[in-house]
Design goal:
The chain is of the alpha/beta class. It contains 19 helices and 15 strands. Strands 7-1-8-9-12-15 form a six-stranded parallel sheet, with helices on both faces. A four-stranded mixed sheet has the order 11-10-13-14. A hairpin with a 4-residue loop joins strand 4 (108-111) and strand 5. Helix 2 crosses helix 18 and helix 4 (96-106) packs parallel to helix 12 (273-282). The longest helix is centred in the first third of the chain and has 19 residues, at 13-31. The chain is globular and about 60 Å long. The structure holds 2-acetamido-2-deoxy-beta-D-glucopyranose (3 copies).
């Protein structure tokens, strides 16, 4: 389905460019009649970022005991009156002693008795700016150039006539937390979904009652699908026009096994991955992104050591062997049942994914163990997410009659360049334009 849809999209690219130009002018002509003609109004867009894609603030209480003198006394330097400072992202964390302070404050703990995750003792966190796209633009506003995140995408959407907090919104969240399978509490993640639900309703109500377009990146797509699945069909039909998922890791990634085993320096050569490994292992949402059995077959080893091999069916044993036994129980009880089935929500979905970028497919560890970075064999994907995971919905829903699913593949586009690259942005914007003009079906059928 994805292949042919992509070809159709490709062959009508010229028409789409014309449409883009027409619609780029349209908002100005619409504005005058917006009050008496809701049909020409733009569908509100809500952006849901990926892991690490929005700012996160923290403050330290008396209960906080840093492991070093530096963390306790001097860092951070800049705080506001209430003691809040930016925990994620602050460029200072790239300096090794500060990396440790950062990592211990970001770390989550699984509380077996409560069956839920919580912050480190003495660390309060909050996500500010819910509703606006402001905190999705740059991770560190003091270093805009190198920490730009959704800024190019936001700018392109605004060029269509969208305005921040009027019909363009952002849904930042505490991306360290995830969601759990039914019957297990997940206070932070569920509160986010509840807020997001209410926010979708508010955004629609503020725009004459027309349904919204959800646009997610990466992990945000997994949250968005849960939002849809956890609300009744009548709600989805009333409030959701379309769901556009960019680079969504539906079936997890091998890259996540690398993160758990050896840490992930986030592409910053100055950072020692072992300094952030504990913190990364503690994140519930990271556990959510372990390779899923349906998309990574039993017979395919993903991690190989001199003594053993691990496929997606061996994640518990893998967690144990890398020295993260604490992860096994939450993984088996909360995560595995959650990812087992991807439920088709019935609202139209477009997945836009990059491919053809070398992506970790098998990790080979030597005698030195997991502290040493492995030799990596690469396969197809977007550089972070394997192709099988990016395309998981096509496979999962091939028998679903009521699910409209379109998949657009962009060769050479990486996991994050999808938010910046001109070719990728043009595709995303075309999709938003087509959804708004509601011409997609008539155009395709007239060809
Ligand atoms: C939705 O709107 C109501 C009424 O204005 C407001 O009280 C509530 O906080 C809003 N919810 C969200 C999540 O923004
Ligand atoms: C598809 O939608 C129709 C009409 O809403 C409904 O009657 C039918 O049960 C749905 N089928 C599936 C497989 O969900
Ligand atoms: C948009 O298209 C759908 C399906 O083609 C149609 O059912 C719906 O009425 C259209 N909406 C508007 C506002 O034209």
């Amino acid at each position: 389905m994805g292949e042919s849809q992509t070809t159709i999209i490709g062959s009508i690219a010229t028409i789409m460019t014309l449409v883009t130009m027409m619609v780029a002018i349209a908002p100005y002509t619409c504005r005058a009649m917006i009050n008496n003609n809701h049909q020409n109004q733009l569908h509100p867009v809500i952006l849901i970022p990926g892991a690490g894609g929005n700012q996160l603030e923290a403050r330290l209480t008396d209960e906080y005991k840093g492991t070093s003198w530096l963390c306790n006394r001097f860092y951070p330097v800049k705080k506001d009156d209430g003691g809040w400072f930016r925990l994620w992202f602050d460029i200072g964390v790239l300096l090794a002693p500060l990396t440790e302070c950062f990592a211990e404050r970001m770390t989550l703990y699984y509380d077996l008795e409560a069956d839920d995750y919580r912050n480190a003792p003495g660390v309060e966190t909050r996500v500010s700016g819910f509703g606006s796209v402001q905190s999705l633009r740059y991770l560190d506003p003091s270093f805009k150039h190198i920490t730009s995140y959704m800024e190019p995408l936001i700018k392109s959407i605004q060029d269509l006539g969208y305005k921040d907090s009027e019909n363009l919104f952002g849904a930042p969240y505490d991306f360290r937390y995830g969601l759990a399978s039914e019957g297990h509490p997940s206070d932070v993640g569920s509160t986010f979904l509840q807020n997001l639900k209410e926010f979708v309703e508010n955004a629609s109500n503020a725009n004459g009652g027309i349904p919204v377009i959800l646009v997610s990146h990466s992990l945000g797509g997994l949250f968005a699908l849960q939002l849809l699945n956890r609300n009744p069909l009548s709600w989805r039909e009333q409030y959701i026009k379309h769901f556009i998922a960019l680079s969504a890791p539906w079936g997890g990634t091998v890259d996540e096994m690398l993160t758990f085993a050896s840490g992930n320096a986030l592409g910053v050569p100055l950072v020692n991955p072992l300094l952030v490994r504990n913190e990364q292992r503690s994140s519930e949402s990271n556990l959510w992104l372990m390779p899923r059995q349906k998309n990574f077959p039993l017979e395919t080893p993903l991690v190989v050591t001199p003594n053993s091999a691990y496929s997606s069916f061996d994640i518990s044993r893998f967690l144990q062997d890398i020295g993260f036994e604490e992860g096994v129980h939450p993984y088996e009880t909360r995560i595995q049942p959650l990812v087992e089935k991807l439920v088709a929500p019935g609202v139209p979905i477009t997945c836009i994914v990059g491919n053809g970028v070398p992506t970790a497919e098998t990790l080979y560890y030597g005698d030195e163990g997991f502290d040493k970075q492995p030799k990596i064999i690469y396969g197809d994907g977007d550089g972070t997410v394997n192709i099988a995971s990016l395309l998981a919905l096509e496979d999962e829903w091939k028998e679903e009659k009521n699910q409209t699913l379109k998949v657009i593949k962009l060769a050479g586009i990486s996991h994050t360049s999808i938010l910046k690259d001109d070719k990728a942005l043009a595709q995303i914007i075309n999709e938003i334009v087509v959804i708004n003009s509601n011409i997609s079906s008539s155009l395709v059928s007239s060809l």
